[in-house]
Structures are given as structure tokens and as C-alpha cells.
Amino acid sequence: VPWSGSYGEVYLGQSISTPTEQVALKVENMLGKRWLLFYERTFYQSLERGAGDRGRVPRLKDYIQDFDYKVNILVLELLGHSLDHWFNYCSNKFSLKTVLQIWDQMLENLRFIHEYSITHGDIKPANILMGLGDNSNMVYLIDFGLATQYRDTKTCRHMKDGIGGGRWHGNSMFGSINDHRGVGRSRRDDLEALCYMLIYSSAVPSLGAMFERPIRDKRL
């Protein structure tokens, strides 16, 4: 299992139609109260039209419901290691050049998903992956399990408090102030979370330690 979390596990798979192609298999138990992969699939489908041109998210290969094994499976383009991995590899600190390169690409990724009326809601190093091969220097945004639609796609009017207002989203370390307060999410919250993440990634040890204090787990 390359990765596992509170919402499922990710396995390395192989394409049947193209034996040389490897894919990422995100697996979720059907017995859970919410089928987050079914929900996440809709966002990948919405983003398929422009992915790779203006913003980078993994391409959706397939979605499978196996009622015998009682699992939902999201088949995605295989990507490289996460920023979390490279952060640890670089002794818990990125250079200013690296931080600026990540910032530049992530701004484009967020601009891209926001144009499709989607907010990510869980910006953190583990959800930002590097590409493979010719795209090994490209930054990809993954995991739309906590994403929301912040405006009506037909009228482009912002929804009151967004979808999911009043409950916690994402993670306490990089979550925006409004997320801590339970206020409905908007584009600014993704940008705020990205800023916190990059400050942490480039921080001197004393600043990094600040994020480890218990206060981060309390509502602001």
C-alpha cells in the first residue's frame, strides 16, 4: 500500500488495456456512511476538459464499484512522490527557489480549479505530488474528497456560506481561519492554506515548531 489515510487506501495498479501503463488505485470501503470516492469522481470529471493545459490534476482513468468485495475504486493517473516526501528528504526545509517554484505552479492549479467553481479544502504537502517522466518538474494537486462547489455553475453567483458551511474541513495545521470558525469555504481559503503550507516548508526551525503547538488543534 503506497499510501493510506482516514478516507481509504491507494494501491499501485496496472492497466489491462495497456500492460506497460501503471495507475493509482484509490480504494474505499462501501460500508462507510459516505462514499467520498463517488463524490470525488464528479470533481475530476468536471476538471477533465482543461486538465494539463492551465492546471495540473491527475487524469481520471475509471471509476469501479465492486459489490462483491464491497469497495469503490477510483483509477487515476500515476504520479510521483508528494511534497511531504521531498520535504523530509530535504531535512524539513525547502530552498527559497523551490518554494517560489511550488508557489507559481500551485497558483495556476488553484486558478484552474476555481474557474470550474471548485474549492479544494485540504491543501497540504501530502496532497501535492510531482509528475513522472517528462513532467517530473510539474506540481499536481490531488485528493478532492473534501472539495466543494463554491458558486452556481450557471449563474456564477456565490452560494451562501458555500456547501458544507458550519463543519470542519481539511486539516488543522494548514486550514484557514474561516475553516477553523466553520464558515463556508471560498477561494480565499485555498490561497490562505497554500500560504501557511509554504511558510511552514521554508521556515526556520523555530517557526516550524510553532505549527506543532497544541493550539493548532483548537478552534480559533
UniProtKB/TrEMBL annotation:
Pfam families per record:
Pkinase
Instruction: Give the organism the record lists.
Output: Orchesella cincta
What name appears for this protein in its UniProt entry? Answer: non-specific serine/threonine protein kinase
Q: Where is the Protein kinase domain?
A: 1-220
Q: Which PANTHER family match?
A: CASEIN KINASE-RELATED
Give the domain of life. Answer: Eukaryota
Q: What class of enzyme is it?
A: transferase
Quote the EC number: 2.7.11.1
